[in-house]
Amino acid sequence: MRDGWHQAVPAVVAYNEPMYSGMSREKRTRLPLPSHMPPSQVPPDRHTHTIERERRTSSVASVEPARQRPARFWCINASLIAILLSIWLAVSLLPPFFARDLTFTFIGWPFSFWMTAYGAPLTFLVIVAIYAVVMNRVDAGDPSDDERR
Amino acid sequence: MPVHPHEPDRLPLRVLVGYASFAAAFVALIGGLTWLEMRGMPRQWIGYVFLAVTVSLYAGIGILCRTSDPAEYYVAGRRVPAVYNGMATAADWMSVASFIGIAGTLYVSGYGGLAYIVGWTGGYVLVALLLAPYLRKFGQYTIPDFLGARYGGRGPRLMGVLCAVLCSFTYLVAQIYGVGIITSRMTGISFELGIFIALGGMLVCSFLGGMRAVTWTQVGQYIIMVIAYTVPVVLLTVKHTGQPVPQARVGAVLEQVVQKEAYLLNDPAEQQVRAIWLARADDMSRRLDALPASFTLEKEALRTRLADLNAAQAPLVEVRLVERELANYPADIAAARDAWIRERDRCLARAEPVVPAGQPYPAADPQQRDTMRINFVALVLCLMMGTAGMPHILARSYTSVSVAGARRSVGWALFFILLLYLCAPALAILVKHEIYTQLIGLQFISLPDWVDAWSALDPQLLQVTDINRDGIVQLSEIEMAGDIVALAMPEIGGLPFAISALVAAGALAAALSTADGLLLTLSNAMSHDFGYRIASPRMPIARRIMLSKGLLLLVAFTAAWLAAGKPGDILFMVSAAFSFAASSFFPALVMGVFCKRINGWGAIAGMISGLLVTASYMVFTHPGLREWAFSVPQSDPVSLWWGIQPIAAGVFGAPVAFVVMVAVSWLTPRPDAGTLALVDYVRSAGARMPRDIAADDRSVTGRL
Question: Which of B223, B256, B428, B698 is the most buried (most CB within 10 A)?
Answer without folding.
Answer: B428
